[in-house]
Amino acid sequence: MVYLLYDVLLILAAVLVLPFLSLKRVLTRKNPYGIRERFGFYKNKQIDELGKKKVVWLHAASVGETRVALLLARQIKGENQDQVVLVTNMTKTGLIVSKQSEFVDFSLLFPFDLSFSVGRLLDLVRPELIIIVETELWPNFIRLAAQRDIPLVMVNGRLSDRSFPRYRSLRFLLKPILECFSAFCMQSQVDAERIAALGAPREKIENTGNLKFDYSLKDVTAEEVKLRKVRYRLPEGVAILVAGSTHAGEEKLLLKVYRELVQDVDRKLVLVMIPRYPDLKRETQGRLKDSKVDYRLRSNLSDEDPLISPGEVLVVDTLGEVLDLYSLADLVFVGGSLVPVGGHNLLEAALLAKPVLFGPHVQNFQEISAKLIRAGAGIKVSDQQDLVRKVKIMLNDPARCRAMGEAGRSLIVENAGATERTMRHIGRQTNIG
Questions:
Q1: Which class in CATH covers the domain with range 25-209+417-429?
Q2: Which pLDDT tens digit goes with each residue over 43-62?
Q3: What is the CATH code of the structural domain delimited by 222-414?
Q4: Active-site annotation, residues
Q5: 406 in helix, strand or coil?
Q6: CB 293 within 8 A of CB 270
């Protein structure tokens, strides 16, 4: 009865959303992205062949979770080249990232969690194992997979300070869902205790560590840096501040910070801003125009363009270039943290030995932010003015920037190993490993 009511509520929500999508289609002359797939209908004829193969299905929400999924996809394919890896995503950006991986055989948008939508895809794919990255608890998907005797493993599981009270209030509904899982590989002991408090069987829970510490360290040569600066039209001898995964309210603050820094800082400075949602570049451009800041769009750059000048902003309206741009930075600021979003991946800068700054709202990366601060690899700023002060200090102390970057790389090495521990649980469910 509960699941019937859940289906009815989802259908009602879809009915309310469809007129909006139809209007958007008329105004933009574009079909809503992936609407057929959201209801479990896929055009790819090769999907029909999936049910005849040995499939491991990894589900990840967006870009950050997808990169974690790709760590496991690489390991799975390394253990057994014949294994077919399917990755499903909630977002278009996550789907693009998964499609770019050589270790993923199929990439699909995850359907709405309606019984007929997820049930149809489960019957098409017939996976031997489902791996859910972090805490994507879709009741119908999990329930119907368990009914088909498909093992489910949660990897890199986490429950933030903000989400845990909400989940706890729904414990009576979540407990039967959590009992469907074969294993829970949690990021920390706190996360392990929290998932147990929600009703997950304790004998299935292990603190395996955070998979994000297992990203491959990136070594970039001086020649590669030089070539990338040419590609992005960034001048030599100028400090580069890269702000990654920025959000709307945050971008206004960052532009104010930049204007103040350009006027006061001793070194010449260029800001590279990478919005979290590059599809919304019109909104970002509007904010730049309102701030009276000159800017260039990454998608419009060519080798013939003049170099970007201090005081200008490079807006990255493309996907898949974050690490390349971080490699050029003197300082990295990670967004979603000056505004109450919860933060984004703080370790990507450390992969490239770059010092990282972030705001006070990092509840989604609480453990990682604390470790970065303790290691001397990251700095938390309290607000806009504190960011100005800290950036000024760092830009005037290149030796400290280098030391922070190296501390970040050391931190990653020290905390590696979660993939191996997670793969042990995956191997118990399949013949992988």
A1: alpha beta
A2: 766 677 777 788 999 999 99
A3: 3.40.50.2000
A4: 65
A5: helix
A6: no
